[in-house]
GTP-binding protein
Amino acid sequence: MPAPIPCPLTLITGFLGSGKTTLIKEMLAHETFANTMVIVNEFGEIGIDHSLMRASTEEVILLPSGCLCCTLRGDLRDLLRDLVARRLAAEIGFDRVVLETTGLADPAPILHTLLTDPVLAEHYRMDGVVTVVDAVTGAANLRRSTAAQRQVALADLVVLSKTDLPEAQPQARSPRPQIARLNPAAEIVPVVQGRLPPDRLRHLGHFDAAMSGSMSGVSARAWIATRVPAADPEHLSRIRTVSWEVEAPLTASRFDLWMDVLMARRGADVLRFKGIVHLQDMAYPFAVHGVQHIFHPPLPLTGWQAPDRHSRFVMIVQDFSDDEVAALCDALAIVPLTEHLLTTGYLGESTA
Ligand SMILES: Nc1nc2c(ncn2[C@@H]2O[C@H](COP(=O)(O)OP(=O)(O)OP(=O)(O)O)[C@@H](O)[C@H]2O)c(=O)[nH]1
């Protein structure tokens, strides 16, 4: 029997809220990516991105909460192996896999899994690592987060997002010099709303040359280690994820005020806010996205199909106490259906 043709796999990484989902949604709109299986790894117990992405493709798999680079590496391996088996049995058909990591993920251990597991190495071909860097908040993220640095260091292509925002204009704020220092070989492409000719996202394969054939764990580890700054688990325990699901629609004025106060008081420490929000007297919900102090205009989800009117929020925050989280909930006058507070040790121990 001829050897199976390996399926190209693209890893999309980038710091919290940088624009990974936006890029993937645009990608899926192109014929080139019509038959793509998307795997999303999200923080928080309540998936938001995959609900938004389902509008673009049915083939979206949500990995359970947690982070691929530490606790979920085994799950990823099992999932990719299972997809191979089902593809070979002609139960499902796809030509490509796109894997979106959480914004806090260190891509090195994930790559290590993808490149060194013998089954995965035979059936998948790394088609590139695309790292999205936010033109507004990217420079600050690269200063303070080792995960952000490692994402850039391992990129084949760096997509510089949000270049349309006025806050991205000052030269002094540009993350380009840091990107060039961390990864002189990576190409940097400015984009707006993830729009990029689809061919720019294929055959990025520095891996083809550097890592062709199956690699031993030792050589993959060594190769990765030459490219990335050391992991620094110092600040990790300061970050936590807060997720709420609320049954009753919210009052628009209260929600606006709540957001304003939260941003004014703690904007810099709300690393990421995302939600699907149902407001009273509105037939459809809104997608709400915040990335540190930048709040993007709410997006009406006019085609929303889900029968329930539950609002869902996920916040990734730094240095918030239990009391502060409880006070936030009280201030919004919500009685959550579900509430999750996760203290995340998100990087875990790197194998790189
Ligand atoms: N103005 C502008 N907004 C953008 C651009 N790209 C993404 N956004 C907005 O930025 C917010 C975050 O984008 P996402 O695509 O959800 O970011 P993400 O990296 O998937 O976020 P996480 O998965 O939570 O880390 C959303 O409100 C997007 O609409 C862009 O090029 N320009």
Notes: The domain at 7-227 is CATH 3.40.50.300 (Rossmann fold). The radius of gyration is 20 Å. The chain has two domains: 7-227, 236-343.
